[in-house]
């Protein structure tokens, strides 16, 4: 944003934080700055005149009427300083007021305004100020230099322009009757602007409260949604882990089932017969098994024929898991059945050694 695009009142308010000497130097920036700084310098000189007049009036009201008593009064130094300032202001007024009223220039020496303000602040604040020549030495030097420079370098060109009758801008209100009217109008304008700004600030505050409440509600809704999303993600992770565990178990059961089927089909009843032959005595021949040993392949084929499993192509994941669990249960039942059969065959094939010896003795006695 451009600085000069701001309202004039705002720019002038910002420039009030500078000294009048700095304001006078800032006239070189641009034409817009020149106009604003000229108004501020003229206004500052008028305000200094009024401030000095009020201070001198209040001091003279407190001084006694007799001249002999005034010399020994505590406010005597105050009066001396203010009267010397009055002479300096009148000299500056005679030098610049003619050209200021015609609109050719402004009150150029801003440093003089700063020095007069400093001296007036000393007079207004201190009860025993220093002597007049000590306080006013800087002011006298600066003001005399400014007047001499203006009379020698600047005023001749301005006088020629006045004599030639060059069209000048309309004169600005001076310290006459129009100055208070212009100040009142400006004050009224500023009051209206301040009232409008106050109303606008109240409206903006109410709107901000409404939007802030909505923002708080939206934040609460967003927090709840984030919480539900976290819970759903946690549940999804738990379900994924449970599914992975079930898949691992199913794979392990399939591997065990394939190993068991391959080993039982390859070995079958040979393992059971070999175990029984090793336990029989070496002199006695093993008996032939009275009961035919069933093989695992036959049982599995019979059960597969009797209980055909449903197809899993058109089933849901839950039904597939139920089918796999049913397969696993069937496999465990088959393994238990096979272990029971092996135990029963072992019990039949095993015979105690004492009974065999008694039979041989009986046969010998019959032969004798």
Give an account of the 3D structure.
Helices cover 77% and strands 0% of the residues. The chain is mostly helical. Helix 3 packs parallel to helix 6 and helix 5 (76-102) runs parallel beside helix 8. The radius of gyration is 60 Å and the shape is rod-shaped. The termini are far apart. Mean pLDDT is 76; it is low at 167-179, 275-301 and 303-309.
Would you identify the regions where 5 or more consecutive residues have pLDDT less than 50? 167-179, 275-301, 303-309
Structural class: mainly alpha
Shape designation: rod-shaped
Number of helices: 13
What percent of residues adopt helix (DSSP H or I)? over 70%
Report the span from N to C terminus.
140 Å
Strand content: under 5%
Summary keywords:
single chain; about 375 residues; mainly alpha; 13 helices
How are the SSEs placed, and which strands pair?
Layout: H1 8-15, H2 20-25, H3 31-62, H4 67-70, H5 76-102, H6 110-125, H7 132-135, H8 137-164, H9 178-267, H10 270-279, H11 296-306, H12 317-349, H13 353-367
Helix pairs in contact: 3-5, 3-6, 5-6, 5-8, 6-8, 9-12
Put the structure in a nutshell.
The protein contains 13 helices and no strands. It has 368 residues and is an all-alpha fold.
């Amino acid at each position: 944003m451009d600085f000069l695009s701001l309202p004039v009142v705002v720019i002038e308010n910002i420039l009030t934080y500078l000294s009048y000497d700095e304001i006078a130097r800032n006239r070189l920036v641009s034409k817009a700055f020149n106009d604003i700084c000229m108004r501020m310098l003229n206004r500052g000189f008028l305000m200094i005149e009024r401030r000095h007049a009020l201070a001198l009036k209040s001091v003279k009201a407190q001084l006694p009427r007799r001249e002999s008593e005034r010399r020994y009064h505590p406010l005597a130094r105050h009066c001396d300083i203010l009267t010397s300032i009055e002479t300096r202001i009148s000299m500056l007024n005679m030098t610049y007021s003619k050209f200021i009223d015609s609109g050719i220039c402004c009150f150029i020496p801003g440093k003089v305004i700063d020095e007069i303000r400093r001296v007036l602040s000393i007079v207004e604040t201190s009860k025993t100020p220093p002597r007049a020549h000590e306080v006013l030495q800087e002011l006298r030097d600066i003001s005399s230099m400014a007047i001499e420079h203006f009379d020698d370098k600047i005023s001749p060109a301005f006088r020629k322009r006045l004599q030639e009758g060059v069209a000048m801008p309309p004169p600005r209100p001076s310290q006459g009757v129009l100055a208070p009217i212009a100040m009142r109008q400006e004050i009224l304008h500023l009051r209206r602007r301040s009232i409008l700004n106050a109303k606008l600030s109240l409206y903006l505050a109410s709107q901000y409260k409404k939007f802030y409440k909505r923002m708080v509600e939206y934040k609460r809704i967003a927090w709840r949604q984030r919480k539900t999303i976290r819970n759903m993600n946690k549940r999804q992770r738990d379900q994924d882990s449970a599914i992975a565990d079930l898949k691992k178990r199913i794979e392990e059961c399939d591997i065990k089932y394939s190993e068991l089927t391959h080993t039982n089909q390859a070995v079958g009843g040979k393992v059971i017969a070999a175990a029984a032959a090793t336990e029989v005595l070496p002199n006695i021949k093993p008996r032939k098994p009275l009961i035919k040993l069933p093989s695992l392949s036959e049982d599995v084929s019979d059960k597969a024929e009797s209980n055909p499993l449903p197809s899993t192509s058109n089933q849901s994941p839950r039904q597939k898991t139920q089918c796999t669990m049913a397969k696993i249960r069937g496999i465990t039942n088959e393994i238990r059945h096979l272990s029971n059969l092996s135990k029963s065959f072992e019990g039949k094939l095993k015979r105690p050694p004492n009974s065999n010896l008694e039979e041989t003795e009986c046969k010998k006695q019959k032969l004798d």
